[in-house]
Hints:
The structure holds 2 protein chains of 2 kinds. Chain A is an alpha/beta fold. Chain A has helices at residues 14-25, 66-76, 86-93, 125-128, 152-160, 211-219, and strands spanning 2-7, 27-32, 43-46, 81-84, 100-102, 110-118, 137-143, 147-149, 164-168, 181-185, 191-194. Chain B has one domain (2-73): Phosphoribosylformylglycinamidine synthase subunit PurS (Mth169, Chain: A). A 3-stranded antiparallel β-sheet of chain B has the order 2-1-3, with helices on one face. Chain B is α+β, with helices and mostly antiparallel strands. Chain B is built from 2 helices and 3 strands. Classes of the chains: A alpha/beta, B alpha+beta. At the A-B interface, loops of A face helix 1 of B.
Amino acid sequence: MIWGVLQFPGSCDERDALHACALASGEARLIWHEDRDLGGVDGVVVPGGFSYGDYLRAGAIARFSPAMEAVAELAAAGGPVLGICNGFQVLCEAGLLPGALLRNENLRFVCRQVDLLPGVDAPETSLYGGKSAHQPLSIPAKHGEGRYYAPEATLNALEANGQVAFRYAPGHNPNGSARDIAGVRSEAGNVLGLMPHPEHAVDPLSGSTDGLRVFEDLARFAT
Amino acid sequence: MVRARVLIRPKEGILDPQGKAVERALPALGFEGVGHVRVGRMVELEAEDPAALGELCEKLLANPLIEDYEIQTL
């Protein structure tokens, strides 16, 4: 499988995402945001950072990039799309995922390792592999606008459909996210967004390799 | 050209930590009796077709899921 990693002006985690994709599935390449053609990649990562300086709202301007039109087509065709942090914000702004990310409740930029559990109604067995639901994934979070919000009816529907991919473990919610939600999926499951950074948790050197599972899980949607 | 001002504010019921922080700072400065502070954004612009402003707000200037907007033509 070949992953493509988008690069916007202001992206800053695209190199780590490339490294993680290459480790997870062998090949990855950068895609400039002005490219309308994704060059035949099987899946796309929308990486973290501050695309377009987060002007107006985080992700609001990046969603209009030519590359994002191609990403929407890939998502509609069932291909894997992973949005990390700012990438999650972009996918929400683009309407590829439900909800929005608001300023952290305590107004502070958070930078710490957090434990993630699967959404209660969706055991996400493939994602957790050998790990049981009692052994959380340990992945770093670093953001100022990560408070997940969606109307109550949407939250209920997400839970009923098994679209809550990750919750912060008790005591680990760093931003006031509704129902401790750290990441959500599209209805078909192939579009996944989360605030914590799996691409920073792929090497034993940085303390955890749990992030690789996120990339491996999405790879199953590649055709 | 029509000059317009767009006011964008967090929707009712959505926690606005910026507003809360401002509200909490006021008593320390001696301003008592101020509450329900909400912090939003204002965009000034000139448009050839003011009829298009609504769509502009829906698609870019505001996120209708979390924000209300108000267009004032000047």
